[in-house]
Design a protein that fits this description.
The complex is a heterodimer of chains A (408) and B (655). Chain A is of the alpha/beta class and 408 residues long. Chain A is built from 15 helices and 16 strands. Helices cover 38% and strands 18% of the residues of chain A. In chain A, the strands form 3 sheets. Chain A has an 8-stranded mixed sheet with strand order 3-4-2-1-7-8-9-10, with helices on both faces. Chain A has a 6-stranded parallel sheet with strand order 13-12-11-14-15-16, sandwiched between helices. In chain A, strands 5-6 form a two-stranded antiparallel ribbon. Chain B has 655 residues and is an alpha+beta fold. The longest helix of chain B is centred in the last third of the chain and has 25 residues. The N terminus of chain B is likely disordered. The chains are: A alpha/beta (408), B alpha+beta (655). The interface between A and B is medium-sized, with 19 and 19 residues.
Chain lengths: 408, 655
C-alpha cells in the first residue's frame, strides 16, 4: 500500500498540534510492513519555494508552498497549482491511501482534486477544529459577544458576521459540504468534535474517533514524590482562548493566606505577539503574584523540555475558554502522570474525567477555578487517587494502526 | 372715424341718425359693399317675408348663394317697421391657420342671451363678447364687441348670428393679424384657447403676453425646473395657485399650450405659508408636475400662463434644461420629483411614463449588434438537448456552487449546452480568469458570453438564447442552486411529452428549506393600481403543501424551460422594462396567448437564494418607484388577460 499524508504545516517550521499529529502518523506508518511507500506533503509559506510549487525537504518529505486566498470559503490562493503541480504530484506518487490532516492554509479544493485524480484511492480527512462549521477561527465562539456557540445555523452565523448574508453562509456551507463529499471517511480526535460535525451534516457512520498518539515517557514518579501536591502548571500559548488571564484572575480571588501555600508556574509562549490589552493585563496581574511568590513565570519551552517541566508540577491546568478538541497538553500531562484541572466543556471535559483522572471547573468562571485549585491543593490524598486512574494515551503505533484499520 | 356707409336704401335714410362708433384705435376703413341676404333672424319667424328680406337693396344684383360677401360694412336686420333689430359690424379680420378671425361688434337683444364672456356659438365658431362703450351709446338694444374665431373646413360660407357670410379670400382686404394683437390685449387668453394648433399666429400672441400685474390676485406661480430630452418629452415642475375659474397652462415660444388640468399636484407647505393670505385654502395643492410632449430645444423658453376669462397673464418662465437620455438616469432624476404615491400610477399614465418608455426603446435600439464575445471551456457537448442560460451580474461566486452540483448530474454532463452570460463589465475579466479553474475542478464544458454593455435580465437572457445550440432553453438564475440531481431531466420530460405545454417551471426553496416559489399568480395591489406577481405559499414548509402538477398562471424565470421555437416566436424576453421586472410573467402571458399552457413541477429540489424579506411594497425610494413603473407598464399591456385568469368566466375555467 502506498500512503500519502497531507499536513497544513511541517513540524520543522510550525509546532501546532495538528502538524505534529500528522507527522507522528507519518513516522509511525513508515515502520509498518503493510505500507510499501509513504510520503509526507506539508504546506509551507517558505519563500524559497515559488507560490504553488512543491519541493523536497528530505527523503519522502515534501513541502508545498500554498496559502488560503479566501478564508470564507477556504479556497486556495494558488488554485492553478492544485490542477497542475498537485495533480502531477499525485499522478507520480499514485497513493492508494491519502490521510489529509488539514486543508487549512492550503485550500479545500484539494479534496475534490484528490478524488478526481485518484478515483480509487481511500481518502480520509482528519478534523482538528471546527473550521468548516465556524467562520470565527473555527472555534464556535460567538463573534460579537464571545459566548460559547452550541449550534450553527446560517441565520446565527449571519448574526455573528453581519457582513455576510444568510445566503452567503448557505453558499459557504454548500461549498464546503460538496468538497467534503469527496472524502470516504472522517476522523475526529474527540467524540465532542465528532458530534459537532454530525450536527453539521456529516453522516454519523462516516465519522469516527481516533485519538492522536503520544510518546511513551518513562515515569519516574518516585523521584518526585512529595507530601503536598500544591504545584500547578500551565503549558501552552498565552492567549485569551487558552485562559491565562482567567487563571490569573482565579489566583487573585484566592485569599492570600491560602494562596501563599500554592505555586503556579506558567510555561507560556508567544505573549509578545498577543494584543496590547492582553499583554498589559497579564503584566498587571502577574506582577504582585510573582512578588508574593505564588506565581512563577517560566516562559516558553522546547518540546524536549516538556516532560521534565511537567514532572516538576503536580497538576496541569487547562483553563481554555473555548471548546477545544483534544488538547495535546492533556495527553502530555497524562503521559507524565499528572492529573488535569480543566474547563468542564467540550473536548476537555471528554478527555479528563471529573473526579477520576482530573477535576473540572465551571468554564470561564475564575472563582470556581479558584475553588478547585484550593481543593486540589488542600485535599489530602486526592492527587494520589486521581493520578492512579490516569490511563496512558495511545502510542503513535496504536494510532497508526487505528488509521490503517479504516482502510480495510 | 368715417362712418360706414351703406349703399343706401331709402329705408335706411329714414332712420334716426346715430353715432357710428369707432374702434378703440383709429383705423382707416375702406368703404365696402354689403349684400344682404334673406336669412331669417334667429327667434323670428322664418320665411322670406320677414323683415330681413325687405332690407335688401334692390339695386344690387342678388348674390347667387345668398351669403354676404365679406367686407367691413355693418350688416343690419330690420323689423317690419324698419327699425334695426340686429346688426353685425366687422372692423377687421385675418386668417390664422385654418381659422378666420373677426373683430367687430354686434347688436341685438337676442344676442344678449348668448353673452357670457365667451360662447361656442356654433360648431367651429367661438365668440368672445366684450364691452364696446362706443357702440353701446348708439343703440337702445344690447350691443357688444365680438372677437370670433371661425374654423374654415372647406365650406364657402358660415352663419353668424343669423347672418350668412362668405369666407373672404385671403390677402386683399385682410387687415392682418397685427391689428388683433394691438386691440385685443385683454383677450389673449381667448386667442390662445381658440387659435388653431400649429398656426404661427399663436407664437405672435405668446410673444405679446405680459406678466401679471402686482395687483393680480387670480393666480401665482413659479417654474422651478423644466427638464427633458428633445424628441422624447420633458417635465415642468414648480408650483402654482389659482382661484377657481382661472385656468393654468404651459406655453412655449411657438404658442403651443398644455393645460395644467391633469398636472400632478401636491402639498407645498412653504407656498401655503407664503400665499394663504391672498389665496386661502386654494394654496393647498400648489406643487405641480406636468409633462410636455410638444417639440422643444434645450434653452427654449417655457412659461406658465394664467387664463382668466379671456385674458392671459404670464406667471413665470424658465428655460429647458437637458435631462439624462439614458433611461435609468432619467428615471433616477424624475422619480425624485415629489409625487404623492397614490398618484404615481396616474403620473406615469399622463406624464413621464410615455417618456421613459420611448427612452428605453431608443436605448435598446442603440445596443450594438456585434458578434458577442464568447469564451469556451472544455469540449462542448455535441447535439445538446437543452441550453442552460445563466446571467451573471455583480457577483459570480454562485458559479462555483452551481457547477459543483452540475458536475454530479449525468444528464447535464451529457446533454446540456451551458452558457453563462456576463452582463457586467466589472466582473467579466474575473469570470473569464476563474472559468478555466472551474472547468478543471468540475469537468463540465461551458461557454462564457460577455455582453457589450450591461443589458439587464431580459437583454442578457436574449443574448444567451441567440447563441444557444439546443432546441430547448432553460433560463436559470445564478442564485438558483440545485441540490438534488435529476431535475434537469424531469423538466425536459415534462415539456417533451406534452406539446401543448409551452413553459415548464420549478418549485424552488429558500435556504432554510421553506418554499420560495410554487408557481406565480396575480394579485391586485390597490395602492399601485396594478396586478402584481405573487408567490403563493412562499415561506411555507413543503410538507404542508399538496404537491400537484397543475396549470399555473405563470412561473418564475429563475428556473424556466421553454422551447427555443416558442421563445423566438414570442420575441424572447421583453427588454422594455426599466432595469428589470415582470419579464417572466410577461413571457408566460405571451405564451398563453399562443394557446399554450404553463406547468410548475413540484417534485424537484432546487434552492433559490433570494432574500426572503424583499418586497417592493412599502420600501421607499427609487427601487420602489422603478417597480411601480414596471407594474404600470405590465398592467397596461395585460390587464385583460390577467382579469380573465383571476376571474375566469364561469362558462369555462381557465386554470
Amino acid at each position: 500500500m502506498k500512503v500519502l499524508v497531507i499536513a497544513h504545516g511541517h513540524p520543522d517550521f510550525s509546532v501546532g498540534g495538528a502538524e505534529l499529529a500528522a507527522y507522528n502518523l507519518y513516522s509511525a506508518l513508515k515502520d509498518r510492513t503493510d505500507v510499501r511507500e509513504i510520503t509526507f506533503l506539508a504546506r509551507t509559506d517558505h519563500t524559497s519555494l515559488a507560490p504553488g510549487a512543491i519541493g523536497l525537504k528530505r527523503t519522502n518529505e515534501y513541502l508545498w508552498r500554498q496559502d488560503i486566498g479566501d478564508w470564507f470559503r477556504l479556497q486556495s490562493s494558488y488554485p492553478n497549482a492544485i490542477y497542475t503541480t498537485f495533480r502531477e504530484f499525485l499522478r507520480t506518487k499514485q497513493p492508494d491511501v491519502v490521510f489529509v490532516h488539514h486543508f487549512a492554509n492550503i485550500g479545500v479544493e484539494i479534496l475534490r482534486e484528490l478524488r478526481r485524480t485518484l478515483p480509487n484511492a481511500f481518502i480520509a480527512l482528519t478534523l482538528h477544529e471546527y473550521m468548516a462549521i465556524c467562520q470565527r477561527n473555527g472555534q464556535m465562539v460567538k463573534n460579537q459577544t464571545k459566548r460559547l456557540c452550541y449550534r450553527e445555523s446560517i441565520e446565527d452565523c449571519n448574526l455573528c458576521f453581519p457582513n455576510y448574508s444568510v445566503q452567503d453562509f448557505w453558499l459557504r456551507k454548500h461549498f464546503l459540504q460538496k468538497h467534503f463529499e469527496a472524502a470516504d471517511m472522517f476522523i475526529s480526535p474527540s467524540e465532542f468534535l465528532r458530534q459537532r460535525y454530525v450536527d453539521w451534516g456529516i453522516p454519523g457512520e462516516l465519522i469516527t474517533v481516533i485519538e492522536n498518539g503520544q510518546p511513551t515517557f518513562s515515569r519516574s514518579s518516585d523521584s518526585h514524590r512529595r507530601d503536598r501536591r500544591n504545584r500547578f502548571g500551565f503549558f501552552g500559548q498565552v492567549t485569551e482562548y487558552k485562559g491565562v488571564d482567567l487563571l490569573l484572575n482565579a489566583l487573585h480571588s484566592i485569599s492570600p493566606q491560602v494562596r501563599k501555600s500554592l505555586l503556579v508556574e506558567i510555561h507560556g509562549a508567544n505573549l509578545e505577539v498577543q494584543g496590547e490589552w492582553l499583554r498589559e493585563f497579564v503584566e498587571k496581574r502577574r506582577t504582585p503574584l510573582i512578588a508574593e511568590g505564588s506565581l512563577r513565570w517560566v516562559g516558553p519551552y522546547e518540546p524536549q523540555e516538556l516532560q521534565r517541566r511537567m514532572s516538576k508540577v503536580d497538576w496541569v491546568v487547562v483553563p481554555s475558554i473555548w471548546w477545544e478538541n483534544s488538547p495535546m497538553v492533556i495527553q502530555e500531562a497524562f503521559c507524565c502522570g499528572r492529573p488535569v484541572i480543566c474547563s468542564g466543556i467540550g473536548g476537555m471535559a471528554e478527555k479528563v474525567r471529573d473526579g477520576v483522572d482530573g477535576l473540572h471547573f465551571e468554564a470561564r468562571n475564575p472563582t470556581d477555578l479558584a475553588d478547585v485549585l484550593t481543593r486540589a491543593a488542600t485535599t489530602e490524598g486526592l492527587w494520589d487517587e486521581l493520578a492512579s486512574n490516569i490511563q496512558q494515551p495511545i502510542t503513535y503505533g496504536q494510532c497508526a494502526e487505528a488509521y490503517m484499520r479504516l482502510v480495510a | 372715424m368715417e362712418l360706414v356707409q351703406r349703399k343706401s336704401s331709402k329705408a335706411s335714410a329714414d332712420r334716426m341718425p346715430r353715432q357710428r362708433p369707432g374702434k378703440a384705435r383709429d383705423l382707416e376703413l375702406p368703404a365696402s359693399r354689403v349684400e344682404l341676404a334673406g336669412a331669417p333672424l334667429p327667434g323670428l319667424s322664418p320665411g322670406p317675408e320677414s323683415g330681413a328680406s325687405s332690407a335688401r337693396d334692390e339695386s344690387e344684383p342678388r348674390p347667387e348663394r345668398r351669403a354676404f360677401k365679406f367686407d367691413r360694412l355693418p350688416i343690419t336686420e330690420k323689423d317690419a317697421s324698419g327699425r334695426p333689430v340686429k346688426e353685425l359690424a366687422i372692423d377687421y379680420w385675418a386668417y390664422a391657420g385654418n381659422a378666420l378671425l373677426i373683430s367687430g361688434w354686434v347688436m341685438g337683444d337676442d344676442i344678449k342671451q348668448l353673452c357670457p364672456s365667451r360662447a361656442t356659438y356654433a360648431p367651429g365658431i367661438i365668440v368672445s363678447f366684450f364691452r364696446r362703450p362706443d357702440v353701446e351709446n348708439a343703440y337702445p338694444t344690447f350691443t357688444a364687441g365680438i372677437l370670433a374665431v371661425i374654423t374654415v373646413e372647406g365650406a364657402e360660407d358660415f352663419s353668424l348670428f343669423g347672418f350668412k357670410l362668405k369666407f373672404p379670400l385671403p390677402g386683399g382686404d385682410d387687415g392682418g393679424f397685427a391689428a388683433f394683437l394691438t386691440e385685443h390685449t385683454q383677450r389673449f387668453g381667448f386667442l390662445l384657447d381658440s387659435l388653431p394648433e400649429g398656426s404661427p399666429e399663436r407664437a405672435l400672441v405668446a410673444k405679446q403676453l405680459q406678466p401679471a400685474p402686482e395687483t393680480y390676485k387670480g393666480a401665482r406661480g413659479f417654474l422651478e425646473q423644466a427638464k427633458g430630452v428633445p424628441g422624447h418629452g420633458g417635465l415642468a415642475v414648480g408650483w402654482a395657485v389659482n382661484l377657481p375659474g382661472v385656468k393654468l397652462a404651459l406655453l412655449d415660444q411657438a404658442g403651443r399650450t398644455v393645460p395644467l388640468m391633469r398636472a400632478i399636484r401636491w402639498h407645498r407647505a412653504d407656498i401655503v405659508e407664503a400665499l394663504a393670505s391672498d389665496f386661502g385654502n386654494y394654496t393647498f395643492n400648489a406643487g405641480l408636475l406636468q409633462a410636455w410632449q410638444h417639440p422643444f430645444g434645450i434653452g427654449d423658453e417655457l412659461r406658465i400662463v394664467a387664463l382668466d376669462g379671456d385674458a392671459a397673464f404670464l406667471l413665470t418662465s424658465g428655460r429647458w434644461e437637458a435631462a439624462p437620455i439614458e433611461p435609468v438616469s432619467f428615471a433616477r432624476w424624475a422619480f425624485e420629483l415629489p409625487t404623492p404615491l397614490d398618484r404615481f400610477a396616474e403620473r406615469l399614465e399622463h406624464h413621464d411614463g410615455a417618456i421613459i418608455e420611448t427612452l428605453i426603446a431608443k436605448d435598446r435600439m442603440s445596443w450594438r449588434t456585434v458578434t458577442p464575445e464568447i469564451h469556451t471551456f472544455g469540449a462542448l457537448v455535441k447535439n445538446p438537448k437543452c441550453s442552460i442560460i445563466v446571467p451573471l451580474y455583480g457577483r459570480f461566486d454562485f458559479m462555483l456552487n452551481q457547477m459543483l452540483e452540475f458536475s454530479e448530474d449525468k444528464q447535464i454532463k451529457q446533454h446540456a449546452d451551458l452558457i453563462y452570460v456576463v452582463d457586467d463589465p466589472r466582473i467579466a475579466s474575473n469570470v473569464i480568469q476563474q472559468s478555466w479553474l472551474l472547468y478543471e475542478a468540475n469537468q463540465i464544458p461551458f461557454r462564457v458570453v460577455v455582453t457589450p454593455e450591461n443589458r439587464g435580465f431580459a437583454g442578457a437572457n436574449n443574448l444567451g438564447a441567440s447563441v444557444s445550440r439546443a432546441p430547448l432553453l432553460l433560463l436559470l438564475n445564478s442564485d438558483v442552486i440545485p441540490v438534488e440531481a435529476g431535475w434537469f431531466g424531469k423538466m425536459q420530460e415534462a415539456i417533451n411529452k406534452t406539446p401543448n405545454i409551452g413553459i415548464v417551471g420549478a418549485r424552488l426553496f429558500f435556504p432554510n428549506g421553506s418554499i420560495q416559489h410554487d408557481g406565480m399568480m396575480f394579485q391586485w395591489e390597490p395602492s399601485w393600481h396594478a396586478y402584481l406577481n405573487k408567490h403563493p405559499r412562499a415561506g411555507m414548509e413543503a410538507s404542508t403543501v399538496r404537491a400537484r402538477h397543475a396549470n399555473d398562471p405563470a412561473v418564475t424565470a429563475a428556473c424556466l424551460l421553454i422551447r427555443k421555437s416558442t421563445y423566438d416566436a414570442v420575441g424572447g424576453l421583453d427588454e422594455g422594462f426599466l432595469i428589470g421586472d415582470f419579464e417572466d410573467s410577461d413571457l408566460c402571458l405571451k405564451v398563453r396567448r399562443q394557446g399554450k399552457e404553463i406547468v410548475c413541477l413540484r417534485d424537484l429540489n432546487l434552492t433559490h437564494l433570494e432574500r426572503q424579506s424583499f418586497s417592493g411594497i412599502g420600501a421607499d425610494g427609487f427601487r420602489e418607484r422603478v417597480a411601480r413603473y414596471n407594474a404600470w407598464r405590465h398592467q397596461r399591456r395585460w390587464s385583460q388577460d390577467i382579469e380573465a385568469l383571476v376571474n375566469p368566466p364561469t362558462s369555462g375555467a381557465v386554470a
